Automatic annotation (TrEMBL):
This is Class I SAM-dependent DNA methyltransferase. One of its GO terms (molecular function) is methyltransferase activity. It comes from the Bacteria. The keyword Cell division does not apply. GO terms for biological process: methylation. PANTHER family: METHYLTRANSFERASE, OS06G0646000 PROTEIN. Gene3D superfamilies: Vaccinia Virus protein VP39.
Length: 241
């Protein structure tokens, strides 16, 4: 799962026993050599699905990490691209890789932007927020978008209970809950806390109009369901917000 340039087992253990922010600061120099980075095929599938809806003006990558999401944003946006994350280490890596983008350190539950962007994306970040924290994130993204702006992010299809992946993710989340019950500071990283229905409800409560489209290039499961969907949350062009 890890390349020779990736973190050692000891480094991963130290990260897992840290806070989310400190853990990612430690992991940042080797993060792109781990399976935790969003795969290029997911980034490319997202860009492919968004292309017919653009072009867009200014873009925002929420929980940008080392800046991999810029791969999806760059071909779609004619204006500036901004990444926001609370890990200084991850942002330092992003700045080295893409000095042409703007990088902002902030807590995404309190985004410091107002009506400045036309497209916002996030990749793999929702599992770092407890369900009760999602409304604050979605409200902040809503404020950050101009009227008519779009918030988009991929969600994978839930694996069937008969699959190895289903039990692997269930086991990981259970282990993480035990870890957080007995160790401080907590490290929030869960794979099964973002079902599409709950996410859709939270987006609608924040003022978005929500649709989804299949990520066609990711293929379909054996039952015919798409392996991934792109959630498209549109801020109305006329709003009282």
């Amino acid at each position: 799962m890890f390349s020779p340039q990736g973190p050692s087992l000891r480094e991963l253990a130290v990260q897992a026993l840290s806070s989310v922010e400190r853990g990612y600061d430690l992991l940042a120099p080797k993060f792109d050599h781990t399976p935790f980075r969003t795969p290029d095929r997911v980034l490319d599938a997202t860009a492919e699905a968004l292309r017919p809806l653009g072009p867009f003006g200014d873009g925002l990558d929420v929980c940008c990490g080392t800046g991999a999401g810029v791969r999806a944003l760059a071909p779609l946006c004619r204006g500036t691209i901004t990444g926001v994350d609370f890990s200084a280490g991850m942002l330092a890596q992003a700045r080295r890789a893409r000095p042409d983008a703007a990088w902002v350190r902030a807590d995404v539950r309190e985004l410091p932007f107002g009506a400045a962007f036309d497209l916002a994306v996030t990749f793999g970040a929702l599992g770092h927020l407890l369900p009760a924290e999602r409304p604050a994130l979605f409200a902040g993204v809503h404020r950050a978008l101009r009227p008519g702006g779009l918030f988009a992010f991929p969600l994978g299809a839930p694996p069937p209970p008969t699959s190895v992946l289903y039990w692997a993710l269930l086991g990981f989340d259970a282990a993480m809950r035990i870890r957080n019950a007995v160790w401080r500071p907590p490290f929030v990283m869960y794979y099964r806390t973002c079902p599409l229905g709950a996410v859709r409800d939270d987006l609608a409560a924040a003022g978005f109009t929500v649709t989804t489209v299949p990520l066609a290039s990711l293929g379909r499961r054996g039952d015919g369901a798409p392996r991934g969907r792109l959630v498209l949350a549109r801020k109305p062009r006329t709003t009282g917000a």
